[in-house]
Specification:
This protein has about 220 residues and is of the alpha/beta class. The protein is built from twelve helices and eight strands. It binds SN-glycerol-3-phosphate.
Length: about 220
């Protein structure tokens, strides 16, 4: 499972990118607005930093408007992916854009049937929203499992991109379910790397090492 970062914050992107684990970025209108920067400028900047797909979402609600915005977004960078919502108009726009070889990430997916429709419209990614289902007392990871199985049974190539991830446990469950990608907020990336036993172990190693270097400075250097 590839790991994407769900943010439009350039500093966060640079920090996680330096770890060597980042395969792409997802943004949405809320994340773009939070940064207070020009949409096109920030997307182009992110596309330059990251060597992988960068999703940028349309904001029109009618098919014609989505297609117009999608065609424009697709010219911003080679690695940009147009994000369309899972509505009737969104499916129409997805079909139109994907016929033009433009990669589309269909977002706001909350059911396996919606995922089937997105795939038939030609979606490159489908984004089931795990955390928002958990928020209403449903099992978001179970939806990811269901879509992965459905796509496998139907030999569908659309990639499953688990979105709205809030916890490390959701990351593990999505990976075991066979999701192709999980997009994580900065905070969750930080949670994944942390373990108190790693910290305690390193503190002990360094303490022991210091002792040796103080007692036998030459031996420690060998
Ligand atoms: O980018 C879409 C998704 O990841 C949003 O997550 O936490 O707002 O439900 P969240």
């Amino acid at each position: 499972m590839l790991l994407f970062l769900d943010t439009a914050n350039v500093e966060e992107i640079k920090e996680i990118n330096a770890w060597g684990v980042l395969s792409g970025i997802t943004t949405n209108p809320t994340l773009i607005v939070k940064e207070g920067k020009d949409f096109k400028k920030v997307v182009k900047e992110i596309c330059n930093i990251v060597d992988g797909p960068v999703s940028a979402e349309v904001t029109a609600t009618d098919a014609e408007g989505m297609i117009k915005q999608g065609l424009d977004i697709a010219t911003w960078a080679d690695n940009v992916v147009v994000k369309c919502p899972l509505t009737e108009a969104g499916l129409q726009a997805t079909a139109h854009l994907s016929k033009k070889d433009i990669k589309v990430n269909v977002t706001l997916c909350f059911s396996a049937n919606q995922a089937l429709l997105a795939a038939r419209a030609g979606a490159y990614f489908i984004s089931p929203f795990v955390g928002r289902l958990d928020d209403i007392n449903q099992d978001g990871c179970a939806l990811v499992e269901e879509i992965v199985e459905l796509y496998h049974m139907q030999a569908i190539e659309t990639r499953v991109l688990a979105a709205s991830i809030r916890t490390p446990q959701q990351v593990t469950r999505c990976a075991i379910a066979g999701a192709d990608v999980a997009t994580l907020p900065f905070k969750v990336f930080k949670m994944l790397v942390k373990h108190p036993l790693t910290d305690a172990g390193l503190t002990q190693f360094l303490k022991d090492w210091e002792k040796v270097t103080a007692e036998q400075p030459v031996a420690a250097k060998k």
